[in-house]
Design a protein that fits this description.
four-stranded antiparallel β-sheet, binds manganese (II) ion, 12 helices, about 350 residues, alpha/beta, globular, binds phosphoenolpyruvate
């Protein structure tokens, strides 16, 4: 099956869009129409030869661009917006070109003191989003499962005290509404990356979604998971590469840095990297975070703990506060250096 996508000009009206949809129906097609922020697209799954349909779409004066998006899910594909999407979190924080969002905090919220201490430290060292899990998807049922709803209140208090917005994971459809009252970003973890009923529920919660890549998912499966969220009308999706399972056992997972560069090319969505869960080893977090920034990521998600050895979850991969501060300093230096030598447009020169 071939999928053709037509992107409307900015400023076109719903009458313009309706008119094209109706004309397509009259010709026997089954078009879908969606609006992502300020962009409306129509995409048409089609089994017949596409040249005639492409010409018909392109001839519509309201249409800006027509593209065959068969290889990438239509709403996620770069052609649906024609420009990188900005995911705004609050007045000061957004995932957008030129910005680098540092999300940091404990893997799991453990106690009021633990969260308050770490939240204060990461805020001081330049984190702009506080992370902390309260519903923990643990491999073993005997491991610490998180504080649940009680942890949400602690996150709310830490957000209030530091002024930082909060990202936290939801593992169950039943927790989505309550979590969305506290969290500024809803995280879907690697183990739920293809839990489609959860993805649809999270999409409808009115919050941006941080979608981790399933550790056994291809890039295509990851992008299709994001398509579920966009298809529900929520265009505020941030993709997170957090390592995949490979034959390599020396690190917890294998950080797929090529996927970061590839997805930045295929999609308009922001992409961030979690070097903590990818490596499982604190000494690798800084080099991987720097690699992520150099590869074009829009931010990182990092575990920080002031007492890593005593952490109830993933202590081996948590940076101490001074290590986190070191990381943010080096990130700043790297980004300043990169800004002085802007990116070449390799895509354009490759096509010439
Ligand atoms: C987390 O960020 O706390 C987490 C559980 O990550 P992942 O889903 O990538 O394992
Ligand atoms: Mn963890």
């Amino acid at each position: 099956m071939v999928v053709l996508l037509a992107r409307f000009h900015l400023g076109t009206t719903s009458e313009n869009h309706e008119e094209l949809v109706n004309a397509l129906h009259r010709r026997g097609y089954h078009p879908n129409r969606r609006t992502l922020h300020n962009r409306t697209v129509v995409y048409v799954p089609n089994t017949a030869p596409t040249a005639e349909l492409a010409a018909f779409l392109a001839a519509n004066p309201a249409v800006e661009h027509v593209e065959d998006v068969t290889a990438t899910p239509p709403l996620v594909s770069a052609s649906s917006t024609g420009a990188p999407t900005t995911v705004r979190i609050n007045r000061t924080v957004s995932f957008s070109p030129g910005e680098f969002v540092v999300m940091a905090g404990p893997c799991a919220v453990e106690s009021p003191d633990q969260l308050a201490t770490i939240a204060h430290e990461v805020a001081r060292s330049g984190a702009t989003v506080l992370r902390g899990g309260v519903f923990k998807p643990r491999t073993s049922p005997y491991s610490f499962q998180g504080l649940g709803e009680r942890g949400l209140s602690l996150l709310a208090a830490a957000a209030e005290a530091t002024g930082l917005p909060v990202v936290t994971e939801v593992t169950d459809v039943a927790h989505v509404q309550r979590t969305a009252e506290v969290a500024d970003i809803l995280q879907v973890g690697t183990r739920n990356a293809q839990n489609f009923s959860l993805l649809k529920e999270v999409a409808l919660a009115g919050r941006p979604v941080l979608l981790k890549r399933g550790f056994g998912c291809t890039v295509d499966e990851w992008l299709h998971a994001a398509e579920y969220v966009l298809n529900e009308g929520n265009a505020d999706v941030v993709l997170c590469e957090r390592g995949i399972r490979t034959f390599e056992g020396a690190t917890r997972f294998t950080l797929d840095i090529s996927a970061v560069a590839l997805v930045k090319h295929l999609s308009h969505l922001p992409v961030v990297v979690d070097p903590s869960h990818a490596s499982g080893r604190r000494e690798l977090v800084e080099p991987l975070a720097l690699a992520a920034a150099a590869a074009g990521a829009d931010g990182i998600l990092v575990d920080v703990h002031h007492e890593g050895a005593a952490a109830l979850c993933d202590g081996d991969q948590a940076l101490a506060p001074d290590q986190f501060s070191h990381l943010t300093n080096r990130l700043r230096a790297l980004r300043t250096g990169l800004a002085a030598a802007p990116e070449a447009n390799l895509l354009v020169s490759a096509r010439e």
